[in-house]
Amino acid sequence: MPAVIDDTYAEAFRSIFAEILVTAADAHWLDTAARHATGNASSSILCDCEAAVSRSVDAKDTPDGRPGVVLQFHVPRFWKEREQKLERALLVRVSQNVLTCPTTACFNMLPAEEKWFPLGRKVSYFGDGHQFKDERFGRRVRVIPILSGEFVIERRFGWAEGLMGGNLWFMGGTPEAALDAAKRSADAVRASGNPVSLPFPGGVASSGSKAGSKYKFTIASTYAEFCPTLRNKPGVTTRLPEGVASVQEIIINGPDLATISAATQVAIAAAKDVPDLLRISAGNYGGRLGKSFVYLLPKAAGA
């Protein structure tokens, strides 16, 4: 029978984000650039941003007629100097992991009339004075001579307000069921073309956390009340339903509440019939972290 879906919500919080389109000659180098540019960007707990592939773009829909992927980068809105930190994350990742990857080019995906970074100009300084401005594919770009030919990057990259922290918890009667459900959900969301991103490895987080810790130097820690191996440990009040052997999580970031909510429903539909999946739930802090609630049950969304 299908898993129980809790009448609860995930608690999303405000972010600022950017989207870049990376194109390449073929799927191999496109995947390589995407994986490296979004590496070590799972959680803003310690990473400089949260980043992941958002969606694929067919060659017929990219400026240069080559296959592409959209990469999404988020930082929390409550961070001090958030705009500078997002720009820095983009600069480091594009210059070190896209510029260096064979056959790639880089284009902006968000409006860049009011809120934008001069990313193309800053990356182009690698050209050591040989870089130049041009208009290609109907876009204003900077062209950098490199050993393999040229690297083309759009001049301006826009940023916008977004949301982080949509999530789902998959509670399995076996570890295999929880992981299967989480993977199916992550795969379904990515395949849907929905403009969201799942920043954890493979889209799945095995170590869902709570805010705070007994250690002052740590801002987040393991959610002991939901750890199966701590179920009978003295001093731990378990909140796991009976029979749950493992919990896997997916995190969903995106441009707005409606988009994340739609992705949440795609994820639930993909997982609910997994054998031995007992329950689908979500993590929240009663509104203390964020004010955007992503309801798991569609009927609750209109409440």
UniProtKB/TrEMBL annotation:
Repeat as a keyword? no
Gene Ontology process terms (BP): one-carbon metabolic process
Give the molecular function GO annotations.
formylmethanofuran-tetrahydromethanopterin N-formyltransferase activity
Instruction: For this UniProt record, give its keywords in alphabetical order, as a comma-separated list.
Output: Transferase
Signal sequence residues: none
Coiled coil regions in record: none
What InterPro entries does this protein's entry cite? ForMFR_H4MPT_ForTrfase, ForMFR_H4MPT_ForTrfase_C, ForMFR_H4MPT_ForTrfase_fd-like, ForMFR_H4MPT_ForTrfase_N
Formylmethanofuran: tetrahydromethanopterin formyltransferase Ftr N-terminal domain location, by residue?
4-146
State a single Pfam family of this protein: FTR_C
Domain annotation Formylmethanofuran: tetrahydromethanopterin formyltransferase Ftr C-terminal: ranges = 149-296
Give the UniProt family note. Answer: Belongs to the FTR family.
Instruction: Please report the name of this protein according to its UniProt entry.
Output: Formylmethanofuran--tetrahydromethanopterin N-formyltransferase
* Native species: Limnoglobus roseus
